[in-house]
């Protein structure tokens, strides 16, 4: 179904305004507005986070249940499996949801996706698992990669809202919603493992006297802008944010994702040794700096600590002073 007019267009709702959901929902509202479709409905635990979205024309609702009652297609992007389960329960308890489509863009365990899909289907609606690849900046730019799985009727209904609206491409994983979650977890294994190795290399460069600047130049020249951007999260001090700032890929989310990855690997009879090291360093960083807002790259601070260096580089200290 393509939103070409207010008469034909479905009502779309959005749940969750974290670092990813904020940019995604704003791009979705811009599309709805330009298409002369009904304004996006939204809700969030802290409604004030939706003020920029409201400025674009979106309309707030006080609860998930209210949003579910009023919406035909419901998107969510929430922090973890427990929140997704609670959200699905509230949608199912909102009233008759037959014919509705619920799309979740969160990173959760495949078993959670399967459980939520069954719950939604039993209530007469359709569920699409649609986790995304990309950081908050890519969400704001509408350049995410969606990994979708669910009934073909549902994925067809949501297609107009993905490519060239919130994302740049879609990877279709068929009807088994657990497969989209598995691919997202596999991608995060790569991302976090890259960061673990780059952090180790930067500590090596500092301890040997090679220096971070020349290492970063080599990383960019050899491996390209993506790996270089990971390096810059270290060299700019973004791994440990200044007080009051919020991480793009928060350490708590990275820890959750690595635990999911290791759980899936164990169930499959395999092992992810770099992910094990990354999880250990993430947990150590959280333990060393419990009051600080930490990025997923903050494993760098833990690796520095193991090497006898200060958790914070001089860049962090100069910034914070």
From TrEMBL:
<dbReference type="InterPro" id="IPR036291">
    <property type="entry name" value="NAD(P)-bd_dom_sf"/>
</dbReference>
<dbReference type="InterPro" id="IPR029154">
    <property type="entry name" value="HIBADH-like_NADP-bd"/>
</dbReference>
<dbReference type="InterPro" id="IPR015815">
    <property type="entry name" value="HIBADH-related"/>
</dbReference>
<feature type="domain" description="6-phosphogluconate dehydrogenase NADP-binding">
    <location>
        <begin position="11"/>
        <end position="171"/>
    </location>
</feature>
<feature type="active site">
    <location>
        <position position="184"/>
    </location>
</feature>
<dbReference type="InterPro" id="IPR006115">
    <property type="entry name" value="6PGDH_NADP-bd"/>
</dbReference>
<dbReference type="GO" id="GO:0050661">
    <property type="term" value="F:NADP binding"/>
</dbReference>
<protein>
    <recommendedName>
        <fullName>6-phosphogluconate dehydrogenase NADP-binding domain-containing protein</fullName>
    </recommendedName>
</protein>
<dbReference type="GO" id="GO:0051287">
    <property type="term" value="F:NAD binding"/>
</dbReference>
<dbReference type="GO" id="GO:0016491">
    <property type="term" value="F:oxidoreductase activity"/>
</dbReference>
<feature type="domain" description="3-hydroxyisobutyrate dehydrogenase-like NAD-binding">
    <location>
        <begin position="182"/>
        <end position="300"/>
    </location>
</feature>
<dbReference type="InterPro" id="IPR008927">
    <property type="entry name" value="6-PGluconate_DH-like_C_sf"/>
</dbReference>
<keyword id="KW-0520">NAD</keyword>
<dbReference type="Pfam" id="PF03446">
    <property type="entry name" value="NAD_binding_2"/>
</dbReference>
<dbReference type="InterPro" id="IPR051265">
    <property type="entry name" value="HIBADH-related_NP60_sf"/>
</dbReference>
<keyword id="KW-0560">Oxidoreductase</keyword>
<comment type="similarity">
    <text>Belongs to the HIBADH-related family. NP60 subfamily.</text>
</comment>
<dbReference type="InterPro" id="IPR013328">
    <property type="entry name" value="6PGD_dom2"/>
</dbReference>
<dbReference type="Pfam" id="PF14833">
    <property type="entry name" value="NAD_binding_11"/>
</dbReference>
